[in-house]
Amino acid sequence: MKEHYGLEIPISMILKITEDHAKKINEKKTSNVMEDAKCLIIEMDGGVVPIVEVDDKIKDIDLRKTRKVIWKEAKLCFARVNKRIDRIYAAVIGSPKEAGEKLYECAKRAGLMEKTYIHALADGAQWIVDQIENQFGSQANFLIDFFHMSEYLNEASQYCSVLNPK
User: In the Cβ-directed half-sphere of 136, how many Cα atoms lie within 13 Å?
Assistant: First the structure.
């Protein structure tokens, strides 16, 4: 904050505000369950995001000079009741298992029941397919989205050509 805005804020205040927001989010998470759903649409995807790490062990050096950018995969998911616009989102920078658990939480909050039909949509990445299977089993049917299916078929078509076999 000081570097960009000239404000110096105690770390304890930043921590308190962050924890207060986390508490409010957690309360909303458990209290805001929608009605039971007959059909849920769920989606999941991953994408790399830049994370800035600062080596704060080094003293008496401008911290900007110790910054290092690393790339980590953020996994985003959502669930919604069929034909409704309201979505429940979750995201994690963590393992596929953690992302699967977040997806299940979204589905529960959206109204997942024992007999809910789940329509899962994603790019076909194996970790996503595995998590949908692990979290929902035979309750879910998986569909690769149109954009990615078109890419996959285009790539495969090069090997199916009678005139130009590869």
Answer: 30
Contact between 36 and 111 under an 8 Å Cβ cutoff? The reply is yes
Strand, helix or coil for residue 144? strand
Domains of the chain by residue range: 36-157
Please return the burial class of 133, using the count of CB atoms within 10 Å of its CB with bins 0-12, 13-18 and 19+.
middle
Residue 132 contacts residue 104 (beta carbons within 8 Å) = no
pLDDT tens-place string over residues 64-122: 677 888 999 999 999 999 988 889 999 999 999 999 999 999 999 999 999 999 999 99
pTM value > 0.90: no
Encoded amino acid at 122, one letter: A
DSSP states of 7-53 as a string?
----HHHHHHHHHHHHHHHHHHHHH------SEEEEEEEEEEEEEEE
Instruction: Decide if domain 36-157 falls under CATH 3.40.50.
Output: no
How does pLDDT run across 9-62, given as a tens digit for each residue? 888 888 888 888 888 877 766 555 667 889 999 999 999 999 888 776 767 777
